[in-house]
Design goal:
Blueprint (H helix, E strand, L loop, with lengths): L1 H28 L15 E11 H6 L7 H10 L4 E5 L2 E6 L6 H4 L6 E11 L2 E11 L14 H4 L27
Parallel strand pairs: 3-5
Antiparallel strand pairs: 1-2, 1-4, 2-3, 4-5
């Protein structure tokens, strides 16, 4: 009886090993996909960026646990929710070495700031390791004055006297055959 049990276990083990080996071999031969290309990481560069400090949770979910969005964002950053800089070009994750940026960035929640530091880019993500941060006032866009038409200003470039209709001859023109 003991002998039959040992033989049964051996048969099951050999069968399982054979099935596993054939599956691995077949998987290796069929549709072996090349390894995905690694996105080249760019060398970090010194930058100065301007944008609004946000916490990723409230920004992405568009939900603030409290009515005061600034206070909520500040608390989220303090407790460890990652912070980011919202720029015209998208989000840039904010960091500060191994300590993290919470102490320096939390007071700047939802304010327009200027960050200086090293910008890293990899796999489509951007990360700034900050050196300094300061609040800046967002300047309103400069409105260009619309170009005015000459007729609106009443000014003409020529020195000739104003003619009521320069395309019709004057009524007393002797060269006009229609004038009678």
């Amino acid at each position: 009886m003991k002998y039959q049990r040992v033989v049964a276990i051996a048969v099951v083990a050999v069968s399982a090993a054979t099935i596993l080996a054939s599956a691995l071999y077949a998987g290796d031969k069929q549709g072996k996909k090349p390894a995905p290309k690694q996105d080249k990481k760019s060398a970090p560069r010194e930058v100065t960026l301007t944008g609004k400090v946000v916490d990723l949770h409230c920004y992405m979910t568009e939900r603030f646990p409290s009515a005061d969005a600034v206070k909520c964002t500040r608390e989220c950053i303090r407790v460890g929710v990652p912070a980011a800089l919202e720029t015209d070009d998208g989000l840039i994750i904010i960091g500060k070495g191994l300590k993290g940026p919470a102490r320096d960035i939390a007071p700047l929640a939802l304010q327009n700031v200027e960050l200086k530091g090293k910008l890293y880019e990899r796999h489509g993500l951007r990360y700034i390791d900050i050196i300094s941060a300061k609040v800046v006032k967002k300047t309103p866009p400069v409105e260009e004055e619309p170009e005015t038409d000459e007729s609106e200003t009443g000014e003409w470039d020529s020195d000739e006297p104003d003619d009521p209709n320069p395309y019709e001859p004057a009524p007393d023109d002797p060269d006009d055959p229609d004038a009678s």
